[in-house]
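ligand=zinc ion
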Amino acid sequence: MLLDSQTKEEGFALETNRPYPELFREPKRIVVLPMGAVEQHGPILPIDTDLRIAALLAEKLEEVLGTHRVLRLPPIPFTLSWEHRGFPGVISLSVVTLHHILDDLMTSLRAWGSYGPSLVVLVSWHGGNQALESLAAELGARHNLPLVVLPSSKSRRAAYQMAGPQDVHAGSLETSIITAFWPDLLANRTAMLQEDAPPFQAMDVQTALQGLGMRRISSSGVWGNAANPSVDAGKAGIQQLVAQMAAEVREMLSFEHRNDA
Ligand SMILES: [Zn+2]
């Protein structure tokens, strides 16, 4: 089972945050939906690394914003992982499938009427999910309900840069986060490695990854340095991301009264 019940108390829960009757007494302004990814993360990290990180960020975001304002939904595990195709453990949806899932979600939320939210936040950690932002803009417009994807690519990039140069996938930052929050899930600790992915000169790393596919870049599936994970770095990365996300949500809510419908 991907979602190990042993780790539940360590900050990763499948269930929503609100018991059912409360939804009828106290409508929530913000719906938070973690969007995972199930894909290879090299020989050390679990294939649901991005799902865990998204769910963790969603939980922490809820804590910061206040449980009374947030309805946190259970996560959608799979998204767009085509750039990792060819490795075992990779499951990918098509953009069209994802579009239908999110369209159905927004239709459902709109049907709640006065109990519905005024903002929907998709929490996605996976770098290959850029298409989510375009889908969010389109579906937010079609359903007249603001929909945003967080952390922003700028915030994610800042977190990776803090972890070190050329830290792209299953390297220092992600290994530090798993070490900090789910240390029992690290496999093969003695094989913690520094991958010899080539340093791209002209290309942006995410563009290179999307264009070439990971298998052509790194035979291990790691792009970065997983050799020296740090609990402090993992916690600091999460804290920084959550603070930025909360600030962004508050800013979005400040535009709530401006209804262009
Ligand atoms: Zn990842």
